[in-house]
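Progress note, sequence design subtask.
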């Protein structure tokens, strides 16, 4: 596997030798001083170019970066919006294990967005066409302090949407339950845990996408409880995970509300939990809930 230095040297060598490329910058996890460094980090690279057409038409151009295992052309996909005249990319997995997310973008396109990218690090600027950039920081991704209404809405969304989880579990509609649990209910729990961490760190940290770095700041028992909220596709396992999720949310909500010096609707939480437990005990041949 090529080292970071070898990869960066190659990226710069190609840029220096190609007159169409006027500048180079990197962003993403490799410029984030707080990101965990490991062998799976991508190289997120942008070449600032005069036009993209010649790069798009010269199919063999990317061969010089190394032997490919497989690749995606994101701008060619129906899943993504695109403006190929101004931005075009190759997402490449190399046979040596490295991954390169490379885009060629016109200067006009880059200048519209680069100032907002606080993880941008300029590697080469032949024409001094790019603005001076401050030291890379993940500050834009730091946890934001919640308002009282945000806290209450998050709690209400969590406790109310468990109603759907309960009926889905009684019906044994596993795909529906997992979708509701992971896409609607879980985000509220993660948001609440983020706020807990935010208050403890004075809102100066990022917990990463999907809260993947929360283990750095949560108590071990809370982190382990959070992991137990990810169930297998078995009804009894999902029920267990849901009850663990409820207990964790309730505990942290009380803590956060105390820190914020605001009321937590304990009655709402209690009634939601009662309904869950009642549905859990409801016979499969039941003709009424109550």
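Output:
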């Amino acid at each position: 596997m090529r080292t970071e230095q070898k990869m960066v040297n190659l990226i710069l060598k190609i840029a220096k030798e190609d007159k169409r490329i006027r500048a180079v910058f990197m962003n993403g996890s490799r410029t984030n001083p707080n990101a965990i460094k490991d062998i799976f980090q991508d190289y997120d690279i942008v070449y600032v170019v005069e036009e993209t057409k010649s790069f798009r038409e010269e199919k063999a151009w990317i061969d010089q970066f190394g032997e490919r295992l497989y690749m995606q052309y994101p701008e060619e996909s129906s899943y993504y919006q695109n403006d190929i005249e101004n931005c075009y990319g190759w997402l490449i997995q190399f046979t040596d294990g490295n991954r390169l997310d490379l885009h060629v973008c016109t200067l006009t396109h880059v200048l519209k967005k680069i100032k907002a990218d606080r993880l941008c690090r300029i590697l080469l600027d032949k024409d001094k066409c790019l603005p001076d950039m401050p030291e890379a920081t993940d500050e834009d991704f730091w946890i934001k302090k919640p308002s009282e209404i945000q806290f209450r809405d998050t709690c209400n969304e969590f406790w109310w949407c468990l109603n759907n989880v309960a009926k889905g579990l009684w019906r044994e509609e596993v795909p529906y339950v997992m979708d509701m649990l992971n896409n609607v209910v879980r985000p509220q729990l993660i948001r609440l845990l983020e706020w807990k961490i935010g208050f403890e760190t004075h809102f100066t940290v990022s917990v990463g996408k999907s809260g993947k770095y929360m283990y750095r700041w949560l108590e071990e028992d809370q982190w382990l409880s959070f992991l137990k909220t990810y169930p297998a596709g078995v009804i009894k396992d999902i029920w267990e995970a849901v009850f663990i999720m409820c207990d964790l949310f309730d505990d942290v909500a009380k803590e956060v509300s105390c820190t914020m010096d605001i009321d937590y609707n304990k009655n709402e939480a209690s009634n939601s939990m009662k309904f869950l437990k009642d549905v859990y005990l409801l016979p499969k041949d039941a003709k009424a809930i109550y």
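The beta strands are 21-27, 43-49, 68-72, 87-94, 99-106, 121-125. Work on this subtask will continue into the next period as scheduled.
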